[in-house]
Amino acid sequence: MELPSLLGRQQIPLVGIDISSTAIKLLELNRVGKGGKSYRVETYAVETLPFNVVEDKNIKDVEVVGEAMQRAVKRSRIKTDRAAVAVAGAAVITKTVQMPTGLSDSEMEATLELEAEQYIPYPMDEVSLDFEVIGPSENNPEEEVDVLLAASKNDIVEDRIAILEMAGLKAKVVDIEMFALENAFTLLAQNDPEIDSNDVIALIDIGATSTSFSVLNDLKIVYTREQAFGGNQLTEQIQHRYGLSYEEASMAKRLGQLPEDYETELLEPFKEAIAQEVSRAVQYYYSSSTSGNIAHTVIAGGCASIPNIVEQITHKIGGHVTLANPFASMSVSSKVNKKGLMNDAPALMIACGLALRSFDLPK
Ligand SMILES: Nc1ncnc2c1ncn2[C@@H]1O[C@H](COP(=O)(O)OP(=O)(O)OP(=O)(O)O)[C@@H](O)[C@H]1O
Ligand SMILES: [Mg+2]
Fold first, then answer.
1. For residue 246, which phi and psi values (nearest 5 degrees)?
2. Confidence band, pLDDT 50/70/90 cuts, at residue 120
3. What's the average model confidence in pLDDT over 194-208?
4. pTM, entire model
5. Looking at ligand 1, which residue's alpha carbon is closest to its atom 4?
């Protein structure tokens, strides 16, 4: 049963679930403090997935991922069965379009469906559409509004819903990864005195298989580029050099339990490769975009947890570089392993952006 909040603000608990290429990342937040102004981490789990069951954001084996989801739910003992998940990748398209002002929701929907056909390379009956009115258009504010159109292939959404259902969860929000990232970053930036929200900020998520380089202006993503680079390259080298399985190598790498020559032979060159990759992404941004000079760079993703990686990147690109910690301004429930959470924090940006959606659902 849901009770109306005493503050007049109805809170709908929602667990944020990021299904990434290496793990299911689950996070539940709660509003606490005077007037519910701050957040507390109630529970979280990172349940590792076997190699390649999620590839390029596509779920290759729904069964296996569903079983991992069951384990994550069981371990974390979440208090709700309502979840927010995200879709991403080539089968997800977003576009800002202009529409006449004063249309009703149903008129807007009908017009957008026709409009969408131009942008979406799939038959319309295989696609789910959603839209959000952003506000008056800059060029014609009297007569037009900007509308954000989001479309995703149905099977991408259906796979995620099926996986949640296997663990007894209901998908209440299906977001787009980029917006979840933006959402988490907004909270992070607003609470970090070193970051000026009006500045141009780069957010670099260095994951296992991919690195995304986004630039935000006024806390909105204005540029984004993905590269096939990530921690799996180091994992593979560890596997070959020391004759370990993917699972063993991943574990040893996280715990730093590897032979003495690991640091000089594999880790240091990999850290240099990361710095090089970041530097190239920055140069590419400057050569292809006019969104302004980057004032601050924030590093997220699992590879951000590699010791001294921020220093190495700073050395390469200069300027102001920091580590993404979406929980910096939050308290943490005593049931949560705080040390583990802090180590995983940079990799939990998307899960955090999704968990935050609990607090902006319609009443
Ligand atoms: N403490 C650590 N030291 C070194 N590497 C780490 C550490 N923690 C995590 N990693 C590495 O970070 C990577 C996982 O990062 P992350 O969780 O951001 O990836 P992902 O979101 O699953 O991948 P992708 O975004 O490519 O789908 C793995 O390669 C993992 O080995
Ligand atoms: Mg990721």
1. -60, -45
2. confident
3. 94
4. 0.91
5. 306
